[in-house]
Amino acid sequence: MRFTEHELTLALTGVAKNVLAVQDKQVRKGRRTPDELWESLGRYERFKVLDGLGDQLLPVLVALPDVEVEPGTRPAFTDEQITTTVEERLGSEKGLRRKALLTARVALVKLALECLPPRQDPDALIVPDHL
């Protein structure tokens, strides 16, 4: 699947916000939104979160099989396609650790795919009226 840089950035940021929200007590209790938590972080803290998640997600997202995506929809992959792609990139981990990593990364990839914006039609040129 060929994702644009913008799509990958939005997917990675969406996953980062969700991961942080799960870990933050204020968000879990409803006192703060994930977006407020994200904005409260400094640039370096955001970078550290995105860097850690990017190492896990970006190679998998780039390696997903090519699928046709209609404008206005998100790409759809089967659980088997996602799991196979993640397994190929796990490395030399073995046993229970491998199984735990596989489960966690598959869940992160699914979340990243949910965070993707709908695909825009590249041929549809939208020109503002004032031009």
Instruction: Supply the number of helical segments.
Output: 6
Beta-strand percentage?
under 5%
Q: What shape does the CA trace take? A: flat
Helix content: 55-70%
Tell me the series of helices and strands, N- to C-terminal: HHHHHH
SS-derived structural category: mainly alpha
Number of strands: 0
Query: What about the largest sheet?
Result: none
**Radius of gyration over all CA atoms, rounded:** 17 Å
Average the pLDDT over all residues and give the rounded result.
88
Number of individual domains = 1
End-to-end separation: 34 Å
Report the uncertain regions. Answer: none
Description:
By secondary structure, the chain is mainly alpha-helical. The chain has one domain. The chain is 63% helix and 0% strand. It is built from six helices and no strands. The model has no long low-confidence stretch (mean pLDDT 88).
Layout of SSEs?
Elements (H helix, E strand, L loop, with lengths): L4 H19 L1 H4 L5 H7 L2 H21 L15 H10 L6 H21 L16
